[in-house]
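PROTEIN DATA CARD
Card holder: Ethylmalonyl-CoA decarboxylase
Chain length: 250
Origin: Jeotgalibacillus alimentarius
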Amino acid sequence: MGYTIRKKNHALIFTIARPDKRNAVNNEVMDGLEKAVTEAEQNDAVKALIITGEGGEAFCSGGDLQEFHQLKTQKESYEMLSKMGGILYRVATLNKVTVAFINGTAIGGGCEIATACDYRIARKGVKMGFVQGNLAITTGWGGGTLLYERLPLNQAFRLLTEAKIHSEETLKELGFIDQTVNALSAEDMIDLFEDVFKKTGPVLSAYKKMLNRKWASGDLRDRMESEIHECSVLWEKDEHHEAVEKFLNK
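Structure generated from the sequence above:
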């Protein structure tokens, strides 16, 4: 199975378990993440959902290029992009605390997953990058729209348009990374949230509702949908398919 779901203390930990694919997302991983979100949503004992990757090399390398490169048309790509975009919207608006434990490299869609979370905790030395532009597409799971909510506009725009790989130190300075740790696993960093877990579930949920009301008034879901549509338009262009072929044949 390409993922695991387990509980520890007040946290539900979702782990992408495809280390041989640098924890790339495929349909199975999408379904697993949606399952984890639903479980966290419905379980009153869960106060946080933590998302991480198996092994120490990659948090998530984005969508599985070999699998999703089979999607050629706008319609085909939109179905995949919309599915994951809907899941990340649920992560972002979940009535629990959400945490990305970035224990390895995060590339492309991996950064979008991290952006959907309330907290981004990174292991020291990891690198991250919104590199989608190098493949002649934009962010397509709603992560670009969410990044504009997380960072000052000029900083978010820079990260998206430069499409470069950055150190965790740089991203911490920008405010994208909340904290760096030496922990190797999600279980090892849970104690960081000891103060959060002392709060009752209804208190944490109420604070998330405040944030969600702000986003609803700013049409977050519609803006994410526009991003997904624009990415699907670019997806079917020759420039994208040629860039992916070049990457896969390196």
